[in-house]
Amino acid sequence: MDALSYLNPVGKALPSVFKYMFVALFLVNYRSWPLVWHFKVLKCVLDLQARYLLLRVRCLFMSKKAKLEAREKWFDSLTPVGKNPFECCTTYSTWAGPDDCDFQMHLSNSCYAKNLDAVRYKAALEMFPTFFRCGGWMALAATHYKFVREIPMFTKYEIKMTMATWEDKWMYVLVRFVSYPKNKGKKGKQTITASDESSPSGADTPNSGPKVDLHTPVTNTGIPSSETMQKLINDTIRKDEADGSTLHCISVSELCCKIGRITVPPAIALGCEGYSLPSTKEGAKPYSVENPPPSWEKVKELKANYSLRKLRDFYKNGWKEVPEGERWWEQALGGAIEEKRKINLELLEGVQKREES
Questions:
Q1: Among 35, 107, 123, 356, who pairs with 161 as Cys (CB 3.0-4.6 Å)?
Q2: Whether 195 contacts 202, CB under 8 Å
Q3: How far apart are the C-alpha atoms of 153 and 131, rounded to whole Å?
């Protein structure tokens, strides 16, 4: 028997091997299949629609007035009435899959932006449910990234989005990509780990880079090279995160609120969601849907008779007709909120200058 006869079984098996390899590769990269990205981004919308459908089923045998009241009560429960916009945080949990990583087996630069789309959409719906009900939408103007430390393949991480500040037209949101150690049992001072490598593809060791105490100023840490990002980290890292959280990337997105082609000032959109300072009365309960701030009564007037037409007109240009001294949204977002807004706006001056240049 010649040598070729021994190779025949191998030759016959090769097509099967390639077939199984192709199927395995296809399954491993399931998160990059067609329409999967759309599902990830729209998952929060589908969830709301499913909950609304259940509400309609429960209200099936109610009177028309009772249905409208139940529907309005449900929509009001979604609104952040009485909350401080700077204290709201949207979290999106995911992991670095093979399809998200580069040849160094780290989360690729492009996937930071791809995965950010989902949390940005989720945060918009959570923070501005009333605005979206009126036909509003968010326009993204720019996104700035500061890469701190790579995210290795198969690492679970969270994308956290918080409000940074706003001005007459633009709204700035702060995004942090963080991961946590597997053992979360130990408690102590919270620290974040940063490497001197500014690229997520940097080849640093697990223990490389200094550890920064979040309760002290960040100086000469290599976290961001720009003073703007340093101050943002000092000012916006939340104290309720798990110990030893690792900061991988910090990002700032610039957005504006739109009704059709009309730009809505962020303060108007925030005011109509019920965001407000806490009550100054001693012993007063925190503001909520059941105990709304005074500004919420103005919003309810704009939604009289369960119609959004008047509120939609207010978003467009109606707010301009309110006299300077009677602008209730400025009072609701005044005091400590306004001071915080101005401080953070100064911190973001460097980002704004880069955009203009």
A1: 123
A2: yes
A3: 38
- The CATH number of the domain holding residue 141 is 3.10.129.10
- 48-103 pLDDT, tens per residue? 999 999 999 999 999 999 999 999 999 999 999 999 999 999 999 999 999 999 99
**Tokens at 62, concatenated:** 């109610």
pTM, to two decimals: 0.79
Return the DSSP state at 265: P
What are the residues whose beta carbons fall under 8 Å from the beta carbon of 83, sequence distance 6 or more? 274, 275, 276, 287
Domains in the chain: how many in total?
Answer: 4
97 and 146, same domain (yes or no): yes
227, 90: one domain = yes
Structure tokens at 45: 């919308």
Taking alpha carbons only, the member of 11, 34, 9, 29 closest to residue 97 is 29
Q: Domain limits at 239?
A: 86-257
- Could you give the 3-state DSSP secondary structure of residue 277? coil
The residues, any chain, with a CB within 8 Å of residue 152's CB and separated by 6 or more, are 96, 105, 106, 107
